[in-house]
Amino acid sequence: MNEYSGLVLAYLPSDKEKEIQIFPHARVDGDCVGTAVALASSLRKLGYRAQVILDWQIPPRLSFMNVPDDLITVVTDDNEQQIRSRQGLAFAVDCSEGHRMGKAESLYSGAEKKVVLDHHVSASPEAEIAYVDGKSASCAELMYLLLKEWEGKFGLKLIDRFEADCLMVGIQSDSGRFSYENTRASTFRTAADLMERGANVTDNAYHLFDETCEGKVRLHAMALSNMKLFADGKIAVTKITQKMMDETDAPEGAADGIVNILRDIDTVLASFVIRETENNELRVNLRTKIGFDAAEFAQKMGGGGHHRAAGFSGKNVDIDSFADTIVAEAVAFLERT
Ligand SMILES: [Mn+2]
Predict the structure, then answer these.
(1) No. of H helices and E strands in the chain?
(2) Which residues surround ligand 1, an ion (CB under 5 A)?
(3) Is 112 exposed, middle or buried (0-12, 13-18, 19+ CB in 10 A)?
(4) Beta strand 49-54 pairing with 19-23
(5) In CATH, what number does 214-336 get?
(6) Domain 2-209 CATH superfamily
(7) pLDDT tens digits for range 176-223
(8) Global pTM value
(9) How many A from CA of 94 to the centre of ligand 1?
(10) What's the gap in Å between 313 CA and the centre of ligand 1?
């Protein structure tokens, strides 16, 4: 019995006219979208109004999930007030803090009732009820536990093929298709049940990990050939500028995966990809092996994440000097631990 399933249920709005608003993190991934959508769809089966509130449209790389339009509301300056007026509960998934939600931040932070469901070790939940399990490979697995309990309680099937597939996308994304250190026996047990309910592992894996396009391949080639190694090959860094994105005509999200290739170099303990974004910020993705705690390092740099995968950002600094700072900090971090 999961203690949170009852707590969360008791906390849902008694007035079913009020909307349960589900907030994934900005720069969405398969886990936060899959978890949020499975929850929204299940809540509707239980007679609640539920909407996933997004900072931006679901990106093309996740379009294979076929999320119905009516489950999603994208926040704009025009509709924010209207969304707020319908709010009965704010439910954060795969993140714990309003500042991770981009344009949806004030809608979440200003909510009267909040619930958090998260698996980030760096989580500092802003909510009355927070179900955080840093050992879970994905947020989708935590959602599965809640929904299974609710199925039992109401004698209703909540996880049909669509919801099963959404949760499977979350698990496959965050466990690196069942290969990262965070993958547990329970991950497979959950996945087995989802597969029996109709989830399509093969299609998901292709779309999440293998499908590519010319611009992405060209961007990877450029970023990989510019890679630099430091500290006897223990630290790998590459930079991705807006100019590189333009030259290769790379789509949004095309830089994904480069950081894993760098981490997989046999000598490397920590890999960094530093990327210029369209709004003149720098986003850093970090992947590590045992001996370098990514979450701890990212928190030191003002970000957060997991032990082996984390991220942080830089503002008002140019990419070259930020790279120098990161290398210096990473070398010091390696020497200390
Ligand atoms: Mn996640």
Answers:
(1) 13, 12
(2) 31, 94, 139, 174
(3) exposed
(4) parallel
(5) 3.10.310.30
(6) inorganic pyrophosphatase (n-terminal core) (3.90.1640.10)
(7) 999 999 999 999 999 999 999 999 999 999 999 999 999 999 999 999
(8) 0.89
(9) 5
(10) 18
